[in-house]
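Page header: ASSEMBLY MODEL / two components / 697 residues total.
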Amino acid sequence: MKAFTVHKGLVAPLDRANVDTDMIIPKQFLKSIKRTGFGKNLFDELRYTDAGEADQDCSGRPLNNDFVLNQPRYKGVSVLLARQNFGCGSSREHAPWALDDFGFRCVIAPSFADIFFNNCFKNGLLPIVFSEEQVDELFVACEGEEGYSLTIDLKRQVVVKPDGSELAFEIDSFRKECLVNGLDEIGLTLRESGAIKTFEDKHQQRFPWLFKELNA
Amino acid sequence: MAGKTLYDKLWDDHLVMSRDDGSALLYIDRQLLHEVTSPQAFEGLRIAGRQPWRISANLATPDHNVPTTVDEREVGIEGIVDPVSKIQVQTLDDNCSEFGITQYAMKDIRQGIVHVVGPEQGATLPGMTVVCGDSHTATHGAFGALAHGIGTSEVEHVLASQCLVAKKMKNMRVRVDGTLGHGVTAKDIVLAVIGKIGTAGGTGCAIEFAGTAIEALSMEGRMTICNMAIEAGARVGLVAVDNTTIEYVKGRPFAPEGVEWEAAVNYWHTLHSDVDAIFDYEVILNACDIQPQVTWGTSPEMVAPVGSVVPDPEAEDDATKAEGIRRALQYMGLEAGQLLTSIKLDRVFIGSCTNSRIEDLRAAAVVVKGRKVADTIKQAMVVPGSGLVKQQAEKEGLDKIFVEAGLEWREPGCSMCLAMNADKLGEGEHCASTSNRNFEGRQGFGGRTHLVSPAMAAAAAVAGYFVDVRDLVKDKQEERA
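Prediction written out in full:
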């Protein structure tokens, strides 16, 4: 996983609550067996005015010019400003894959759905939670100023605004450690193989019926 | 010290280790796999040169992409017309063969929607931890199992280590006491709960559904309710184990037998919240207040009793909510103040991991028996949750009732719940659907989904628009007939 330390990037505002993962990446694009290439279909139904198909060349598709990410001022965006309950619905990890593939490194919102929030950390994408008021202020600032950028300093757990003022955010220390160092979580867990095996043996003694072979 | 909740007990019995930051390693007893969220996980294992930790903990079946027409199904994977879907189903097949994982492949009678197949086989048992790369894994909580929907990286993590990195959730209890009225079902309970607490109401929580109305439900009904816990934002839904649970599990292919059965049952009887357990949140509903529900918007919380009207955004004080309602009405092509019973329907879908079990099909069959699907309905389809559900329904003659009434009787799979296969809505079409999500485009580009119970969907098929099923099936007598 790529490490996340300090990132400075252009911010785009997506002013809509309860953005679900079907909206982030519609189902017809989930048929891929790869982790990459989802960026061109990120927010497909909001971004284009036609119905998108899997494996389609998107370069000639009609764009919805009202959609924020289609506006020239947000070209090269890497920080998404969103509303409450972002990422609700399906567990598809294709949602953070699509955001990442499009170029996003960070999503800021007042709240996230649990599974999406978890999935972000596995993919070097940083979800940051600020209060409704703080997010409101960022929306006003971002919409009001072309080229509005934020610097996200994960080590110091602050977001630095263009005027130099800072907003502190919370993050679990384990997740921070993994992101800052780009650590492979499976590798970390497997360092505890001994403890897992010890637990498993005791578990099997206590609940032998859970270890029944599933024969085809 | 206060007693433990059911969630606390399940957590404690699977805790391998806690870390200082509050995260923990939880041991996973069962992983269910399907074709959409597993290919990248297997690929990850291969790239890292890792082997699955405990192969027999895994069970796979293709469901999301599989076609539901007999013609395509008879041929097997080669018969899948959509080449991209075919690759994904084939990839699951290849991965299961390579790693030696038990799979109910497309032509196996036991194939079906993972959340129907697991319980049906006894591969989901009380007291287990269950994961699957699908948010509706919450379904299995109906058995007093701790079931999490997870992402693909976590699928790979569990394959490699048999553990999930988890953080303890908060405890929420939703109590539904009293008796459900005639024609009101588990689906109406859960839609009413979501309407009350909202789609983020349970975020960060494990929701235990309790109360006399929940205790009175069959396992099918409990699965419907836990299934939609995620639609209230909760990754985990739970119901305490009781005799209904144990009776359902008994004799299933992977259920314990003999001495082990006795030991298991003794343990399972401890799987309930202690009377002095403390919940962080509690929500109470009275079963007799719950009416048949219909969603009118683009989020499951946008729901109302069938007798009411589409809400007016101008009457909403919260600006964000008002904007949400405005957007939803525009997408759905509805007017504020319009009666829900005036919504004309184009298609009807009875199926999905929420409502495709035998009891759901029986409930729908009772309504359509001796009636005809309205001429204005372009398509009404019934998609059983598994090959075994299909077989049972055919044994009971339900397929004939559906076909005679003008509904299509399909092969098992997820089908139009998320329209990854050929079953989908056209732009602007309204669908009465027994599935779980009415998001924009969920059932097809521009499609308009209304979530309802199987009985309400069947009634809508007959009428061509929403009707109160209680007006169609007048009394309990007929309901049982």
